[in-house]
């Protein structure tokens, strides 16, 4: 009986630890310090439905919409959005995920760091 309880507890923990949000980033920096960052955000339908109220149905629960990026980038000189795509795709569990792909082009490392860490305390570039 003890082994069965332990097995069920481990299975439950594994289910709870499955991710509702996935983020991938690919950064390319050229010799002159400019470059691009390609981002992919994968938000599960379960997380997407959390926090939906009558007044905010049109806004994603996680700020990965086009307007969110445009608003953030407007505050950072030297960075711009060159590509944006958002669509629903099936996931491995049979549900659907909202997948957002964004490509940003930056003029220098300072612009990239401002995007990654607006407080300036957690991200750094060493040359």
What report would you give on this structure?
With 127 residues, the protein is an alpha+beta fold. It has one domain. The protein is 28% helix and 33% strand. The chain contains four helices and four strands, in the order αββααββα. The protein has helices at 2-16, 45-49, 66-73, 109-116, and strands at 21-29, 35-44, 79-90, 96-106. The chain has a four-stranded antiparallel beta sheet with strand order 1-2-4-3. Strand 3 and strand 4 (96-106) form a beta hairpin. The longest helix has 15 residues, at 2-16. The mean pLDDT is 80.
Percent of residues in beta strands: 25-35%
- The gross shape turns out to be elongated
The domain tally reads 1
Whole-number mean pLDDT: 80
Unreliable spans:
none
**Alpha-beta classification:** alpha+beta
Features:
four-stranded antiparallel sheet; alpha+beta; 127 residues; 4 helices
Short description:
The chain is an alpha+beta fold and 127 residues long. The chain has one domain (20-116). The protein has helices at residues 2-16, 45-49, 66-73, 109-116; strands at 21-29, 35-44, 79-90, 96-106.
Mind sketching the topology for me?
Layout: H1 2-16, E1 21-29, E2 35-44, H2 45-49, H3 66-73, E3 79-90, E4 96-106, H4 109-116
